[in-house]
Amino acid sequence: MITIRHDDYDFRLSPQQYMDIHKEFQKAGLTETIALQFTQWGRLCNVPPEIVQYINSEPGYEIALHGWGHFAYNEMEFDFIVRDLQAAMFSCMKYFGVYPKVWYTPWNCMSNAIERAVAYVGMEVSNESNDIWRFIREAEVGKFSGKTMYFHGWKNDEMELFPRMLELAKQL
Hints:
Blueprint: E1 3-9, H1 15-28, E2 32-37, E3 39-40, E4 43-44, H2 49-57, E5 61-67, H3 78-96, E6 102-104, H4 112-121, E7 124-126, H5 132-140, E8 148-151, H6 156-159, H7 162-171
Parallel strand pairs: 1-2, 1-8, 2-5, 6-7
Antiparallel strand pairs: 3-4
Helix pairs in contact: 1-2, 3-4, 5-7
């Protein structure tokens, strides 16, 4: 089973666009892992109530973190990482009623401070980096050996590959 990460899920799309993407996951019988961040370009995100209601009422979601923002956490000190993770965890609980268990670090970076912070807040970290292009290229020839892959719902060139990604993911 592969984890398909909807990366940079920061509410820049309309609620309907997010819902339409999820409906495709449901049709394919796959779980959508949304890697949430709560700031965009340094500003607090506007979390639309209709997408919150939809996520909370529909099956097939796994909620994960991408950070409070899309920061270079590998360059930050332990205390600042913990602060950001706890703020993001609080927001996940506030909006979705769950504490996420996995953090997908921005740019899939690691550091000793990240490892310590994740342990401190009781999460796991995943920094496997398989983008939609690599996944498709390797899955088409039966050579994909990863556990996760990611796509960005707001990137048109990636969304052109979205149907093929779902088709291949169903086969794994």
